[in-house]
Amino acid sequence: MSSTTASAAGGGTAPVNSRSRVIFASLIGTSIEFYDFYVYATAAVLVFPALFFPNADGVVAQLQSFAVFGVAFIARPLGSIVFGHFGDKIGRKGTLVASLLTMGIATFVIGILPTALTPGWEVLAPALLVAMRFGQGLGLGGEWSGAALLATENAPRNKRAIYGTFPQLGAPIGFIIANGVFLLLSINLDAEAFQAWGWRVPFLASAILVIVGLYVRFKLIETPAFQKVVDSGEVAKLPLARAFKVSWRQMILGAFIMLATYVLFYLMTTFTLTYGTTANSLETAVSNAEAAGKPMTEAAQAAFVPGLGYARNDFLVMLILGVVFFGIFTLVAGPLAERFGRRKMLMAVTAGILVFGGLFVPLFSAGQVGVMALLIIGFTLMGLTFGPMGAVLPELFPTNVRYTGSAIAYNVSSILGAAVAPFIAVALWQAAGGSAGLVGVYLSSMAVLTLIALFISRETKDVEYEGNVS
What we know:
Layout: E1 3-6, E2 13-16, H1 19-46, H2 48-52, H3 58-89, H4 92-112, H5 124-152, H6 160-188, H7 191-198, H8 200-218, H9 224-231, H10 239-257, H11 259-277, H12 282-291, H13 298-303, H14 312-340, H15 342-356, H16 360-364, H17 367-386, H18 389-395, H19 402-419, H20 421-431, H21 437-456
Helix pairs in contact: 1-3, 1-4, 1-5, 1-6, 1-8, 3-4, 3-5, 3-19, 4-5, 4-8, 5-6, 5-19, 6-14, 6-18, 10-19, 10-21, 11-14, 11-17, 11-19, 11-20, 11-21, 14-15, 14-17, 15-17, 15-21, 20-21
Protein name: MFS transporter
Transmembrane segments: 37-54, 66-84, 96-117, 123-150, 162-185, 197-218, 252-273, 315-333, 345-365, 371-396, 408-429, 435-456
Subcellular location: Cell membrane
C-alpha cells in the first residue's frame, strides 16, 4: 500500500511509494528483464546455432549466434534514448511499464518463431530472430535506468547505494531462473525433444512473469525527485539534447566505469558456458557429433579448438552455484559503498578484477575444483562491482536528465563491453589454440580502462539528489 509524507507546500500530505513496494517493483522488473535477456544468451550457446544457422559449421554457427546476441546491445542505447526521453519528460512509472512490455512481447515472439530448419523459413527465421533480439535490447535499454531511479529516488539520502542494489539483484535472480528452467527441461527431456520444442518453454513462460511485473508497476506513483522537477517547471523540453549539453562528460565516464563490470559478467556466463561445454578433444567432438546424427565436416574438424569437455547440465549447475555468490555480494556491496564511498570501493574491486584476469589459465587448468573456484571468485567480484552501479550512475546526473544520462552511459557501455565480449573471447580462445590466457588478458585490459575512469571521476555519495536540475 502507499504511505504518505508531509508535503513541502503547507501541512498537507502527499502520497509516496512504500519501501516494500519500491523494493519489490524495482527488483521484480529487472528480474524479469534479465530473465528474458539471459534466456536468449543460454539458447544462443545451446540450441540456436543448430536451429537458426544450420548451414554453417560448428564454430561459424556459434559466432553467428553470438553476433545476433550482440544485436540487442546495439539496440540498447537506442532504447535508452527513447525511454530516457519519456522517463525524463513524463515520468518514471509509465516509462517503466512500456519498457517491460516491449521486452516481454519480443521474448514471447521468439518462443513461437519457426526455425531455419522449417521449409521456406531458411532466411526469414534468422531475420525475425534478429528483429526480436533487437526488441529485447530496446526494452532493456529503458528498463535498468528506470528501475535504478525508482529505487534511489525513493531512498533516504544515506541509503541510496543500499536501495540501489535491489534492481541490481534482478541480474542474478533472472540468470538463476532462466538457466534453472533450461536445466530442468534438459534433465526431463531427451536431446531431440529439447531441440524440437523444449527450448521454447522459457521464452513462452516469460509472459507469466511480465503480467506480474506489470501489475506491480501499475500500482506505483511517481518518485518524489521527479515530482519536484515537475512542480518547479524544470522538466527538460528535449532531455537528450540537454543531457549532451550539460552532462556529456558524465556519460563518457559512466560508460567506462561500467566497462569492466560488463566484460566480466559476459565472460563468466556466455563465454565460460561455451568454453566449458566444448569437447576437450577432436575425437570426442567427432564422436558426439556422430551420436547426435550430425557428423562434423572436414572443415569443421580442421577449425575445431578444444574446450573443457563438461556435460552441459553439469556446467549449468556450476554456473548457477557461482551466480548465488553474485547475488549475495550484490547485497553486500550496498552497505560497503555507503561506508567507504562509491569511488574508493569500486577502485578496490576493479583492481581485484585486473588481478583476476591473470587467474584464468591456472584455474581453468586445475580441474573441476579450479573451474568452480574461478566461477565463485569471478561472480563474487561481479556482485561487488555491479551492486553499487544502481546508485553510482544515476548520481552522476541532475534529476531532469537523470533517466536519459544514466541510461545512455549504462547502455553505451553494453556495446563497448558486453556486446563484443563473447565474440572477442571466442576469437581469442581460438587464436590461443584452446587456452583462455588471452581472454584473461582481455579482461585485465578492460579493468585498467575502468580504473582510469574511476580515478578521474568524483565521489557521488553526498551529492544533492532530490529535485536538483541542470
